Amino acid sequence: MEPHICVIPAAGLGTRFLPATKAMPKELIPVLDRPVIQWAVEEAVAAGAGEIVLVLAEGRNELAEHLRPNPSLERILIERGKHQELEAVRRAGSLARITVARQREPRGLGDAVLCAAAAVGDQPFLCMLPDDLSIADPPVLEQLRDAHRELGTPVLALMRVPNDQISRYGCADVVETRGRLHRIRGLVEKPPAGEAKSDLAVMGRYVLTPDIFAALRQTTPGALGEIQLTDGLSALLAKGDVWGVEFEGDLLDVGTPAGWLATSIRLARNDPRFREAVSGALAMAAA
Ligand code: UTP
């Protein structure tokens, strides 16, 4: 069955981006002309998602509002003849059907995914962390969806990282390789330097099967009371095949100020609307 729901967990505290995220979710921070959440949803839609399950913190509605129609704003834009802006506002509000699931406390990514269980039901689904933007053709989530179509198993996004950086990521221990596809036999979250089984890091794009929910329900919380998605995935590995795709293209960080800045500059240089402005600013800064 083709996954048609994409779960986007967005209930984290965004501590790496404080104080910007003190009163708003980090997924509302704009990259070029649209907030991070819109980049994420556009990628999910390209991968075949018709419905987005947003996992939001209690009382936080801004992200859902961005993705739903805003009739009063549309009326004003019509009255003022702002056709291009109207088009942009309508597009953002009609990308996909939006369902909200609530995470009552930030108890980790695994818990956030579990909060989407009722909305997803008994079917495979896409899942993506909006902390990274996909600069890839086809987008990373679409590459995973294609691999899932071929393999029928859960599929994780894998990226090769330099050996001295793997301890910042979840690391995949692989048992079989077919081109860019790797069958995974183990996952280790942030392995100590020198102990990693590979240089393949697990990134925040997934195709998951509904048995992940039972696995997460049985996962015991870690030291900070957080339920890790990696632990739930490890339980799935013990029962059946899980594959990874070493995707083509890049995932660019927008979850930290430095990452956001570098990503914004890179995207601006590739966008005719911003190229001149950013090149001029960089030339002035270098002078
Ligand atoms: P991060 O590890 O980036 O955590 O979560 P965070 O809280 O958002 O940010 P930092 O690390 O404190 O700066 C990865 C994804 O999982 C979501 C986040 O919103 C982000 O999209 N998440 C994380 C939740 O939805 N709930 C949680 O309890 C934790």
Question: Could you explain how this protein is built, in words?
Answer:
The chain has 287 residues and is α/β, with parallel strands linked by helices. The chain has one domain: Alpha-Beta Complex (Spore Coat Polysaccharide Biosynthesis Protein SpsA, Chain A). The chain is built from 11 helices and 13 strands. The protein has helices at residues 36-46, 62-67, 71-79, 83-92, 109-114, 117-120, 140-151, 211-217, 229-239, 257-269, 275-286; strands at 5-9, 30-31, 34-35, 51-57, 97-103, 125-128, 132-135, 155-160, 170-178, 181-189, 200-208, 243-246, 250-253. The strands form 3 sheets. A 5-stranded mixed β-barrel has the order 8-11-9-10-12. Strands 2-3 form a two-stranded antiparallel ribbon. A two-stranded antiparallel sheet has the order 7-13. Strand 9 (170-178) and strand 10 (181-189) form a beta hairpin. Helix 3 (71-79) packs antiparallel against helix 4 (83-92) and helix 8 packs across helix 9. The termini are far apart. It binds uridine 5'-triphosphate. Uridine 5'-triphosphate is lined by residues 9-17, 55, 103, 106-109, 111-112, 129-131, 255.
